[in-house]
Each structure stands twice: as structure tokens, then as C-alpha cells.
Amino acid sequence: MRNIIVTGGTRGIGEAISREFIENGDRVFAVYRNDDKTAQEFAENTGAVIIKADVSKKEGVSGVFDVVRKYGKTDVLVNNAGISQIKPFADITEEDWDKIFQVNVKSAFLMSKEALSDMLVGKKGKIINISSIWGQTGGSCEVHYSASKAALIGFTKALAKELGLSGIQVNCVAPGVINTDMNAHLTLEEMDELKEEIPLNRIGTPQDIAKTVFFLASESADYITGQVFGVNGGMLI
Fold first, then answer.
1. Tell me, what CATH number does 202's domain have?
2. DSSP 8-state secondary structure symbol assigned to residue 204
3. Neighbours of 50 (CB within 10 A)
4. pLDDT in tens, 11-36
5. Active-site annotation, residues
6. Residue 152 near residue 94, CB atoms below 8 Å
7. For 5, what's the count of Cα atoms within 13 Å in the CB-facing half-sphere?
8. Which domain holds residue 91?
9. Residue 210 lies in a domain
10. pTM of the prediction?
11. Exposed, middle or buried: residue 185 (CB in 10 Å: 0-12, 13-18, 19+)?
12. For residue 237, is it within any domain?
């Protein structure tokens, strides 16, 4: 049984990723930050090990691995924790910028650094970072979010090069428009307009992302590293 860590693993895309691994027989450590009720219900329904922690801070990350190491080493790390904010660039504050980067980028740095202390010993492991189509193309009124997701792509590619000889694969998934709470602010009309821009003519589901992540964590992807998988229905080609 593999040990899988999924940050932001009890809601939205993270929940779907956690479920995909659990349904395939893996032990999942679903890390969350705030919603105790949702996390507890998720654990009761799936058997996931839930861990409450702020993974944008070193002490939070240490707490996660204190729990995981009671069960053994980390086999797969999915850096999914993230926040977004829609705001014109002129209105973005320094605090807004720092918060987005701390959650979206620093958490991936801290979690990966700690996971590697397990993976390097056995010269085996998978790190999968969740970026965004806006990290590839840029999103209007989401400059700080887009920049943070672009940073994850650079992080993925550089780390993959560094860890190749250690037998560790690092890849990235860049979701397009996905039906999650993050897009709940969009009206039906706006969602329909977005669908018209997507060749497959539908909004993506969290399960679309989860299946791609599971593939990248499998032995079938052992010769794939440093890649960005756009799961976007053809919105970006």
C-alpha cells in the first residue's frame, strides 16, 4: 500500500484526487486547513487520514510528516493546496501578492523539500504539482494567481532535472476551467461563454484532473518527468 499526501485534499479537485487514490487501494493523507466538518465527513466516508495543517508554514509541514511517518515513507506527494483571487492589477496589495505566493508556491517548496528526505533514500517517488491554464497563458484580473501558477511550472521543470538521477519523477497538471467552488462566482451565462471556447464543449470535472494525477503517480508514467499536462478540453492547444 502506497502512502499518498494530497494537500488541499478534502475539497474540490483535491477531494477527487484523494478519492481516486483511495479507490485504487492507496493510503491517502488528505491535508486541509480550515473546514473541519467537511474533512471529518470525508474521512468517515473514505477512510482517508485527515491532517489539519497550514502547509504554507514550516511548522505546519513538520506536523504533516510527523503523522505520515508513523505509517512509513512518502511514496507520492500531490501539491494541490491553492487559493485564488480576482482583482485588477492596480488594486492588488502587497499582502494579496504575498498570501497567494505563500499558499500556492511556498507550500509546494516546503512540502517537496520534506518529502524528498524520504524519497531520496529509496531513490523512488513522485511529486505532482497542480498549476493552472492561467499559469500557461495568464489570466486577466488574476495577475498574482497566474504568476504563482507559472512559478509552479518552473519549479516542476527545474526540480525534475535535478532529481532525474535519483529516480524521482516531478510533473505538473494544469487544469482548465473546472467545475469547483473556485469558479462558483461565475454565472450560468459566463460558464456557457467559456464552454464555447472549449473544443470539447464542456466544463471539466475534478475527476478529469484526478485521473491524470493518478496516471502520473503510476508505474505507467515512470519515464515521464518535467512535463506539464494541460487538462483543459482543448481550450489551450
1. 3.40.50.720
2. B
3. 23
4. 999 999 999 999 999 999 999 999 99
5. 145
6. no
7. 36
8. 3-230
9. yes
10. 0.97
11. exposed
12. no
